[in-house]
């Protein structure tokens, strides 16, 4: 087989993998909205959605159909091109994160070895930070293009919040990188799967806690949802949006939550590693599928924790949000980095 034919096969494999991961992520995000309403109902002692289909299972489709059928309104005073670009950029940035996440071990199909990762780049964590930063532009563009003072104020809140918490997240990750010596998510996962090596949560418990708090802030989840503070800013940065443009903004939040959960599972909880089980005992393809299932279970657990926190903890005031980021999380992240450095030197 010629080199050109091999290249085309590789491209086709990657396109199929991209389609599977993107549609699976969107499907999970669709039912995450349903799960959130059910979790909120359980915590508030009420039934939750139960009329659309058996047990309310068709409720996400009813919500999506409602958004699609609503009238699309673009304010006359808005910057129309940017108004349309904002929600598309937010959704695109949310989905781009999945490119460097290792979803499982490689599989053998049609005599070819296929990695369940779109791109194994050696700077995967830097790529994630870059993509996450792009998501802020979706918020800023949407808030500014709406030509609404409340939307603009909410967008400014979102940008300052993201900048503040990305610093603490980055410093917490530096400590993890000092212990792993790699920026590749696949390498980090494989290190945690090596015999005699524990998951990184055992080496970086404080770093994980800092990363988790910052991930909630990056996803604009309660108690860090200041850009969407309805009681202060009417409806937040997407106040002027309707129909599927509003749906993209709301949906991108759930996609971000899923991708954040996948990143945390990969960095600190072994990714697709199955605890207390030797995957080598299974056939290669079966082991890969079981690994994908293990990663999905870890993602679901993180999503539940996100929801649990949202419906039990009240929203911070804006000054409390900034004080937590600059006066608590960043100093703790720096201390964690110094302790990690001292621990590494002590081992030498």
List the helices and strands and how they pair.
Blueprint: H1 3-43, H2 59-69, H3 80-96, E1 104-109, E2 112-116, H4 124-145, H5 149-180, H6 185-193, H7 205-218, H8 230-233, H9 243-268, H10 284-310, H11 318-347
Antiparallel strand pairs: 1-2
Low-pLDDT runs: none
Radius of gyration: 21 Å
For the record, the count of structural domains works out to: 1
Largest beta-sheet details: 2 strands, antiparallel
Helix content: 55-70%
Average pLDDT taken over every residue: 85
Q: Major sheet: order of its strands? A: 1-2
What is the general shape?
globular
Strand fraction equals: under 5%
| Tally of DSSP helical segments | 11
In short:
This protein is mostly helical and 348 residues long. The protein has helices spanning 3-43, 59-69, 80-96, 124-145, 149-180, 185-193, 205-218, 230-233, 243-268, 284-310, 318-347; strands at residues 104-109, 112-116. The protein contains eleven helices and two strands.
């Amino acid at each position: 087989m010629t080199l050109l034919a091999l290249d085309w096969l590789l491209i086709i494999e990657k396109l199929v993998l991209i389609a599977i991961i993107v549609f699976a992520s969107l499907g999970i995000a669709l039912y995450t909205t349903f799960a959130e309403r059910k979790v909120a109902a359980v915590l508030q002692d009420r039934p939750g959605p139960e009329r659309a289909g058996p047990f309310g299972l068709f409720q996400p489709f009813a919500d999506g159909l409602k958004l699609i059928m609503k009238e699309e309104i673009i304010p006359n005073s808005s910057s129309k091109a940017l108004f349309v670009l904002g929600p598309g950029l937010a959704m695109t940035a949310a989905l781009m994160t999945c490119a460097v996440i290792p979803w499982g071990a490689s599989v053998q199909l049609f005599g070819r070895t296929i990695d369940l990762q779109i791109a194994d780049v050696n700077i995967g964590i830097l790529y994630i930070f870059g993509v996450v930063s792009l998501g802020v532009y979706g918020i800023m563009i949407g808030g500014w293009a709406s030509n609404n003072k409340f939307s603009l104020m909410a967008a400014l809140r979102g940008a300052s919040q993201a900048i503040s918490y990305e610093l603490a997240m980055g410093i917490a990750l530096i400590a993890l990188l000092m212990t792993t010596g790699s920026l590749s998510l696949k390498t980090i996962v494989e290190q945690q799967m090596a015999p005699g090596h524990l998951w990184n949560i055992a080496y970086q418990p404080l770093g994980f806690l800092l990363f988790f708090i910052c991930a909630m802030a990056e996803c604009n989840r309660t108690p860090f949802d200041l850009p969407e503070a309805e009681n202060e800013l009417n409806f937040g940065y997407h106040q002027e949006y309707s129909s599927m443009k509003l749906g993209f903004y709301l949906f991108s939040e759930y996609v971000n939550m899923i991708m954040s959960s996948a990143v945390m599972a990969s960095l600190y909880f072994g990714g697709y590693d199955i605890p207390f089980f030797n995957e080598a005992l299974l056939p290669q393809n079966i082991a890969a599928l079981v690994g994908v299932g293990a990663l999905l279970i870890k993602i679901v657990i993180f999503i539940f924790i996100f929801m649990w926190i949202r419906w039990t903890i009240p929203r911070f005031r804006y000054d409390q949000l900034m004080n937590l980021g600059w006066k608590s999380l960043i100093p703790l992240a720096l201390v964690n980095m110094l302790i990690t450095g001292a621990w590494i030197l002590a081992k030498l």
